[in-house]
Amino acid sequence: MRLNLLPTMKMRSEWIDATMLRDFEAEGTDAHRLCTIDDGWVERFGRDILISFKNAPARERLTLELNLWGTAVGFKFGRIFIRFLPRKNEEREKPRLLFGSKEENLQTLVTERHLKFGIDFGAGYSVGLFADQRENRSYVRKIAPKRLLNCFAYTCSFSVAATSVGAKTVNVDLSKKSLARGRENFSLNSLPSNDHQFIADDVFTVLPRLARKGEKFDAIILDPPTFSRSRRGKAFHVEHDFEKLLLLALELTERDGCILLSTNCSTLREHALEVMARYCLKAARRAGKFHRQPPLPDFSPNMGASSIWLCLH
Hints:
By secondary structure, the chain is of the alpha/beta class.
């Protein structure tokens, strides 16, 4: 596949180079960012490409430069999808096919450090795996929790990572369809899901219920959306409700457990998350320290989710 290019165009420095591409493939990863600019980005999912853009000039630039990059590094594309990044969540649409066969299945598989995940370009705005959480999933495998609570679990990628090193998991998400896809991700990795819980409900309902039962977890994932609304109509705003969420999670965390605090909200960067966590530790009379995973080589600074790990002691 070749796009029509302006002959004067040159490669920009925002694109990953051939060495980084080989490093990803050597570690068994074919889902990652290819390029980031102010008004958009390009991601790879196996042989398929997803271009996300805020405006038409960004879409045109990324589309044109993508072909230059592919030629430079010897990458052969499968399909190219595009996705508009609207300011309002309700205006979001699923990715649209730009290049490639319309007859091909919109579902495909990718690997991340040899774990398999299902991708579906036709399921909705998000395709099934957030590449900016790659290092946090790796940390879950490193700490090897016995029990993991995955809040806002989506397609359960953190739970797959934890289960691959022996954990039992509880997965909470409002969407039954997302949790069903999570079960499929377990199956893709030959991981039985029988001993794991998949709860389609509001985390603010589930977490107090787990606390009343005396449940405890070695690791808890808090990666909430910026905004959501439960089936009962209750709204969640991450800027106002993350603190309450963390206080509930602290009740469920083992003495030496870890909690991931992560968000894409632009007003909650790492420092703000740490300030909030220190306040919650004091309120809960707990003690802990903070851990940060190394920066993602395929992401520009401050372009992925803001994340810190709160490790209790």
